[in-house]
Amino acid sequence: MYQQSEGYNWYKVIATLIVNFCVRPRYPRPEAMKNCNSCGKCCEYAGNGGLSATREEIDWWETHRPEIAQFVMDGKIWVDPKTGEYFARCPWLRQEAPGGKTSCDIYFDRPEDCRHYPVDIAQMIREDCEMLEAGDRKDHHRAQKKLDAIMIDVRPPVSS
Ligand code: SF4
Ligand code: SF4
């Protein structure tokens, strides 16, 4: 019994050495995608009609958050009520200091468009999202799977 147990342990030690020194260096695990660091780059693309909202969201804002609804016009967000033009920058984006972290003034009532971000890797690359690792830019398919796993509770997966 003692002999069998010791043999099994040696087998495990050798198997671990082979995996750590021979297999993993050749086939490294995919690096995890980084967490969102609130850089705000994605929100910078939300001006000039870069976002949309559903009829249900607009109705809800009109009933419960009129200060949000004031920037909706003919189903379009975010529109300056004084000029009827899109704001060049999302009016809810806050940045305490230049280059610092950002926050959203309507975070809990923001549109689904914002809740679902990031959706796809091409969009993240275009907007220079800081969640991306170097490998994500090379292998979009694998990166999309990692992203879909992160967003599983928020939106349906994009990758097949
Ligand atoms: S509504 Fe909030 S989350 Fe959406 S773009 Fe503006 S600041 Fe960003
Ligand atoms: S660009 Fe990426 S890292 Fe930056 S706030 Fe948006 S989701 Fe987060």
Strand content: 5-15%
Distance between the termini: 49 Å
Order of helices and strands: HHHHEEEEHHHH
Shape: elongated
Largest sheet: 2 strands, antiparallel
Number of helices: 8
Taken together, the total number of domains comes to 2
Contiguous low-pLDDT stretches (5 residues minimum) are 1-5
- Main β-sheet, spatial strand arrangement: 1-2
Helix content: 40-55%
**Structure class:** mainly alpha
Tell me which ligands are bound. Answer: iron/sulfur cluster
Please tally the β strands and state the result: 4
Radius of gyration: 23 Å
Average residue-wise pLDDT: 88
Overview of this protein structure:
The protein is mainly alpha-helical. The chain folds into 2 domains: 1-30; 41-150, no CATH class. 43% of the residues lie in helices and 6% in strands. It contains 8 helices and 4 strands. The protein has helices spanning 2-26, 41-44, 55-64, 66-69, 112-115, 121-126, 134-138, 140-150, and strands at residues 72-73, 76-77, 93-95, 102-104. The strands form 2 sheets. It has a two-stranded antiparallel sheet with strand order 1-2. A two-stranded antiparallel ribbon has the order 3-4. The protein is elongated, with a radius of gyration of 23 Å. It starts with a helix and ends in a 10-residue tail after the last helix. One iron/sulfur cluster is lined by residues 36-42, 117-118, 127, 129-131. One iron/sulfur cluster (SF4) binds next to loops.
SSE inventory with pairings:
Elements lengths: L1 H25 L14 H4 L10 H10 L1 H4 L2 E2 L2 E2 L15 E3 L6 E3 L7 H4 L5 H6 L7 H5 L1 H11 L10
Antiparallel strand pairs: 1-2, 3-4
The protein binds iron/sulfur cluster (2 copies).
One iron/sulfur cluster (SF4) binds next to helix 2.
